[in-house]
Amino acid sequence: MPVVSRVVSIVLRVAEIVFGAVVAGIIGWFLHRFGDADAWPQPRWIYTEVIAGISILFGIIWLIPFSSGFFTWPLDLLISMAWFAAFGIQVDANNRLNCGSIWNWGAITDNTYCGRWKAAQAFKFLSAIVWIVSALVGIWFTFRVRRHATDRYGGSGGRYWI
Protein backbone atom coordinates (compact mmCIF):
# COMPACT_ATOMS: atom_id res chain seq x y z
CA MET A 1 0.00 0.00 0.00
CA PRO A 2 2.84 2.50 0.30
CA VAL A 3 2.80 2.95 -3.47
CA VAL A 4 -0.86 3.92 -3.43
CA SER A 5 -0.36 6.50 -0.68
CA ARG A 6 2.61 7.99 -2.52
CA VAL A 7 0.71 8.27 -5.80
CA VAL A 8 -2.29 9.81 -4.03
CA SER A 9 0.02 12.25 -2.26
CA ILE A 10 1.67 13.32 -5.52
CA VAL A 11 -1.70 13.83 -7.21
CA LEU A 12 -2.91 15.91 -4.25
CA ARG A 13 0.28 18.01 -4.22
CA VAL A 14 -0.05 18.75 -7.94
CA ALA A 15 -3.69 19.77 -7.40
CA GLU A 16 -2.61 22.04 -4.51
CA ILE A 17 -0.07 23.76 -6.74
CA VAL A 18 -2.51 24.16 -9.64
CA PHE A 19 -5.37 25.45 -7.49
CA GLY A 20 -3.04 27.87 -5.70
CA ALA A 21 -1.73 29.18 -9.02
CA VAL A 22 -5.25 29.66 -10.40
CA VAL A 23 -6.34 31.60 -7.32
CA ALA A 24 -3.13 33.66 -7.33
CA GLY A 25 -3.69 34.58 -10.98
CA ILE A 26 -7.33 35.56 -10.54
CA ILE A 27 -6.78 37.55 -7.35
CA GLY A 28 -3.67 39.12 -8.88
CA TRP A 29 -5.86 40.33 -11.73
CA PHE A 30 -8.26 41.90 -9.22
CA LEU A 31 -5.39 43.57 -7.36
CA HIS A 32 -3.98 44.95 -10.61
CA ARG A 33 -7.34 46.09 -11.94
CA PHE A 34 -8.90 47.50 -8.77
CA GLY A 35 -5.88 48.16 -6.56
CA ASP A 36 -6.51 51.89 -6.25
CA ALA A 37 -10.24 51.71 -5.53
CA ASP A 38 -11.28 52.29 -1.93
CA ALA A 39 -14.48 50.23 -2.11
CA TRP A 40 -12.74 46.92 -2.84
CA PRO A 41 -11.55 44.48 -0.18
CA GLN A 42 -7.84 44.86 -0.96
CA PRO A 43 -6.51 43.46 2.40
CA ARG A 44 -8.59 40.33 1.83
CA TRP A 45 -7.06 39.89 -1.60
CA ILE A 46 -3.55 40.36 -0.24
CA TYR A 47 -4.24 37.71 2.42
CA THR A 48 -5.45 35.36 -0.30
CA GLU A 49 -2.36 36.05 -2.43
CA VAL A 50 -0.13 35.22 0.55
CA ILE A 51 -1.99 31.96 1.21
CA ALA A 52 -1.80 31.06 -2.48
CA GLY A 53 1.95 31.77 -2.51
CA ILE A 54 2.53 29.67 0.60
CA SER A 55 0.45 26.87 -0.91
CA ILE A 56 2.42 26.90 -4.13
CA LEU A 57 5.74 26.95 -2.28
CA PHE A 58 4.92 24.13 0.14
CA GLY A 59 3.18 22.14 -2.59
CA ILE A 60 6.36 22.22 -4.68
CA ILE A 61 8.63 21.40 -1.75
CA TRP A 62 6.43 18.55 -0.51
CA LEU A 63 5.96 17.22 -4.03
CA ILE A 64 9.37 15.61 -3.69
CA PRO A 65 8.42 12.02 -2.84
CA PHE A 66 10.04 11.35 0.53
CA SER A 67 8.21 9.56 3.31
CA SER A 68 8.87 12.55 5.56
CA GLY A 69 6.40 14.48 3.40
CA PHE A 70 3.60 12.46 4.98
CA PHE A 71 4.56 13.74 8.43
CA THR A 72 3.74 17.32 7.48
CA TRP A 73 0.05 16.73 7.99
CA PRO A 74 -0.28 19.35 10.77
CA LEU A 75 0.88 22.01 8.31
CA ASP A 76 -1.45 20.61 5.66
CA LEU A 77 -4.29 21.01 8.12
CA LEU A 78 -3.20 24.56 8.96
CA ILE A 79 -3.01 25.56 5.30
CA SER A 80 -6.45 24.03 4.73
CA MET A 81 -7.86 26.18 7.53
CA ALA A 82 -6.17 29.23 5.99
CA TRP A 83 -7.85 28.42 2.66
CA PHE A 84 -11.22 28.08 4.39
CA ALA A 85 -10.62 31.48 5.99
CA ALA A 86 -9.75 32.99 2.59
CA PHE A 87 -12.93 31.48 1.17
CA GLY A 88 -14.92 32.88 4.09
CA ILE A 89 -13.60 36.40 3.74
CA GLN A 90 -14.38 36.36 0.02
CA VAL A 91 -17.89 35.12 0.77
CA ASP A 92 -18.23 37.98 3.26
CA ALA A 93 -17.08 40.44 0.58
CA ASN A 94 -19.62 38.91 -1.81
CA ASN A 95 -22.39 40.72 0.06
CA ARG A 96 -21.35 43.99 -1.65
CA LEU A 97 -21.67 42.55 -5.14
CA ASN A 98 -24.54 41.65 -7.42
CA CYS A 99 -23.11 38.32 -8.57
CA GLY A 100 -25.76 36.05 -7.11
CA SER A 101 -25.47 33.27 -4.59
CA ILE A 102 -22.05 32.24 -3.37
CA TRP A 103 -22.76 28.61 -4.33
CA ASN A 104 -23.91 29.41 -7.89
CA TRP A 105 -20.68 28.68 -9.75
CA GLY A 106 -22.26 28.25 -13.16
CA ALA A 107 -20.66 31.34 -14.67
CA ILE A 108 -17.04 30.66 -13.71
CA THR A 109 -16.04 30.27 -17.35
CA ASP A 110 -17.42 33.69 -18.31
CA ASN A 111 -14.85 36.37 -18.89
CA THR A 112 -16.75 38.80 -16.68
CA TYR A 113 -16.09 40.32 -13.31
CA CYS A 114 -18.62 38.02 -11.61
CA GLY A 115 -17.32 34.99 -13.50
CA ARG A 116 -13.79 35.60 -12.25
CA TRP A 117 -15.06 36.25 -8.74
CA LYS A 118 -16.96 32.96 -8.75
CA ALA A 119 -13.95 31.10 -10.19
CA ALA A 120 -11.77 32.44 -7.37
CA GLN A 121 -14.38 31.30 -4.84
CA ALA A 122 -14.61 27.84 -6.39
CA PHE A 123 -10.86 27.26 -6.53
CA LYS A 124 -10.37 28.52 -2.96
CA PHE A 125 -12.93 26.02 -1.73
CA LEU A 126 -11.43 23.21 -3.82
CA SER A 127 -7.95 24.06 -2.57
CA ALA A 128 -9.11 23.91 1.04
CA ILE A 129 -10.66 20.50 0.40
CA VAL A 130 -7.52 19.16 -1.32
CA TRP A 131 -5.30 20.36 1.54
CA ILE A 132 -7.52 18.72 4.15
CA VAL A 133 -7.57 15.45 2.16
CA SER A 134 -3.78 15.65 1.98
CA ALA A 135 -3.69 16.04 5.77
CA LEU A 136 -5.94 13.00 6.16
CA VAL A 137 -3.64 10.94 3.91
CA GLY A 138 -0.70 12.09 6.04
CA ILE A 139 -2.49 11.13 9.25
CA TRP A 140 -3.36 7.72 7.81
CA PHE A 141 0.23 7.15 6.67
CA THR A 142 1.71 8.34 9.98
CA PHE A 143 -0.40 6.03 12.11
CA ARG A 144 0.03 3.14 9.70
CA VAL A 145 3.83 3.51 9.93
CA ARG A 146 3.64 3.80 13.73
CA ARG A 147 1.45 0.69 13.95
CA HIS A 148 3.80 -1.19 11.60
CA ALA A 149 6.84 -0.20 13.69
CA THR A 150 5.09 -1.27 16.88
CA ASP A 151 4.13 -4.64 15.40
CA ARG A 152 7.58 -5.22 13.97
CA TYR A 153 9.81 -4.08 16.84
CA GLY A 154 7.72 -4.65 19.92
CA GLY A 155 5.74 -2.48 22.28
CA SER A 156 7.47 0.89 22.07
CA GLY A 157 7.42 1.38 18.31
CA GLY A 158 10.83 2.99 18.70
CA ARG A 159 12.20 2.92 15.16
CA TYR A 160 9.69 4.79 13.02
CA TRP A 161 12.00 5.32 10.07
CA ILE A 162 12.21 1.70 9.03
Structure description:
This protein is 71% helix and 0% strand. It is built from four helices and no strands. The protein has helices at residues 2-34, 42-61, 73-93, 113-153. The model has no long low-confidence stretch (mean pLDDT 81). It is elongated, with a radius of gyration of 19 Å. Helix 1 packs antiparallel against helix 2, helix 2 (42-61) runs antiparallel to helix 3 and helix 3 (73-93) runs antiparallel to helix 4 (113-153). It is an all-alpha fold and 162 residues long. The chain has one domain (2-153). The two termini are 15 Å apart.
Instruction: Estimate percent helicity.
Output: over 70%
Q: How many discrete domains?
A: 1
Return Rg in Å.
19 Å
Main sheet makeup: none
Low-confidence stretches: none
SS strand fraction: under 5%
Oligomer: single chain
Strand segment tally: 0
* Average of pLDDT: 81
Large-scale geometry? elongated
What structural class do helix, strand and pairing data support?
A: mainly alpha
